[in-house]
Amino acid sequence: MVPIVDIAIKHAGAYAARYELRLGERLGFGIHGSVHVVEHKIKADKSAIKSHRATEFYARERAVYERLKGERISDILGFHVPQFIRADDELEVIEMTIVTRPFVLDFAGAYVGAPPEFSEDIWADWEGEKREQFGGRWAAVRAVMSAFEDLGIYLVDVSPSNISLLD
Questions:
Q1: Would you give per-residue pLDDT tens digits along the chain (167 residues)?
Q2: How far is 37 from 24, CA to CA, in rounded Å?
Q3: What residues pair up with 84 in beta bridges, in sequence order?
Q4: Integer Cα distance of 97 and 72 in angstroms
């Protein structure tokens, strides 16, 4: 059996070949997939692709990008949000613009339409962990999350690497 991480990388390479892109450096990776820079062979543009490890997370992330595109959102409360370029449902890859700090990214763990149904204890533990991770920045992060919730997008997988402030 092929390791899961190899599937994400294999799909990233297949996506690059399919759309005549050059696969560049890896920007990040995690439980949901792998993110790489891609360069267009014809024009000098660069963008990012995220190849997903599971259909559920690809579908969630794509739904968020479609909602953001429909609302013409490029930033939320001054935080840059990657812009959706295209997606490949077969390869479970999403192509997006590259953003600079401050930013919000990585929507594979988000819920669209309704928040997840977790118990009050789980939510309390989650918030305690996030308050510890973000420290004095928690109020700003919570404000960003509330702005996403106003759009029907519920961010659950938040960390300093995917909600990044300037400092």
A1: 445 447 899 999 999 999 999 999 999 888 899 999 999 888 778 999 999 999 999 999 999 999 999 999 999 999 999 999 999 999 999 999 999 999 999 999 999 999 999 999 999 999 999 999 999 999 999 999 999 999 999 999 999 999 999 87
A2: 5
A3: 96
A4: 14
